[in-house]
Amino acid sequence: MSPANHARGRRPRSSDAFSMATSLTMRLLLVVAVALLAIAYVVVQLVRPVPAVAASVTPISTTMPGVPVSLSWPAQGEAAIGVEGAGLLGTHGTQTPTPLASVTKLMTAYLVLRDHPLTVTGPGPNITITPADVTTYQQDKAAGDSVVPVQAGEQLSERQALEALLIPSGDNIATLLADWDAGTEPAFVAKMNAAAKQLGLTDTHYVDASGVAAGTQSTAASQVRLAMLDMSMPAFRAIVDMAQVTLPVAGIQYNVDALLGKDGIVGVKTGYTTTAGGCFVFAADTTIAGKPRILVGAIFRQFGTTAQPSAITEVFDATTALVTSADHAFEQSAVVRRGQALGHLDAPWTGSIDLEAAHAVTLTGLPGEHVTATVVLPDKVNAPIPAGRDFGTAVVKVGDERVTVPLVTSSALPSAPMSWRLTNV
Q1: Which of 103, 140, 188, 252 has the fewest Cβ atoms within 10 Å of its own Cβ atom?
Q2: Are 343 and 58 in contact (CB under 8 A)?
Q3: Quick check: 272 pLDDT over 90?
Q4: What is the mean pLDDT of residues 267-294?
Q5: At 262, is the secondary structure helix, strand, or coil?
Q6: What is the enclosing helix (H) or strand (E) of 196?
Q7: Among 364, 417, 405, 394, which Cα is nearest to 88's?
Q8: Are the C-beta atoms of 171 and 192 separated by less than 8 Å?
Q9: Using an 8 Å Cβ cutoff, are 111 and 212 in contact?
């Protein structure tokens, strides 16, 4: 081979060099592109929102323990019963607003004691009987209403006036107290209706302070609720448990509650008109879970029958039967235990986290009565959430009795880890 040809064999051809350079460039660009794509993937995965944490409810279905009982409800009218501290727990009949007769005085007494509180034995301020009060007494007596004698210039303490209202059931005393509290009876009636609305007694309407007017109406259920409020006032509770009272002019006045002291009855208020029939709101001693409690009930629209012509005796007989059947019938039970799961949180990157009751819930009710639980959870869940954090509430209910229990996380809910974010598209 000549020197010239040898030299030509060692020099790379220009096309080969170009190809090599191009290949290297392409490989470098590919590596860069892959790296950029990888970086972009990581950035996108790390910055994009993670799936929402789902909060859901764990339904519970339970009933009050024990053998179901049948209460001796009246054969006519409507009735309701409950337990102090637990509220209304059972009703019977249509619960249609009906004339209240003298049961109206439960609201009259409630407003007087709300506006002018008394201690359990305190007399309160004096009320001077005016000629107008005497005229009211005479008019009510002529109409055949239940009245308490008064005379002009007589001094009745607030407590004595309430005794005259609640024990012999003086209709004229209801007017007296209405005028004393609000200036006029119409102004007092407006307060009665405002109080009924405020207390949630939506089926209740008053047109007078004594209950003589048929337009004064409510239901047994609402009057049980009102009586429980009255009985929470020590002065009221003491007065309705009195068999008799001696007043300055009227002298000895006897309680029209003929059941007082029988079958554990400790009050509360009777009522009767030909329109309303026999009415009675009662309170009676009972025992629940070994502890003394008070039953509060109402029976309305009891009319005389051939066998029992007296509407008042009819309502007393119905009350005795109901109280006897309800005595020791109610149960007290822990319907939700501490740590019971009432909901849970679910996130795709971890297991389910229970939402547990922070404390046990004990309710009072009739055996076999259904227990309901309404769970309220936040609309939005943001991780992380530590263990033991309050998260939502549950309202557990039997009848009127409701207990709100906080829910807490059983364990920590972490944020979505980087490994999960990078591997879940």
Answers
A1: 252
A2: yes
A3: yes
A4: 96
A5: coil
A6: helix 185-198
A7: 364
A8: no
A9: no
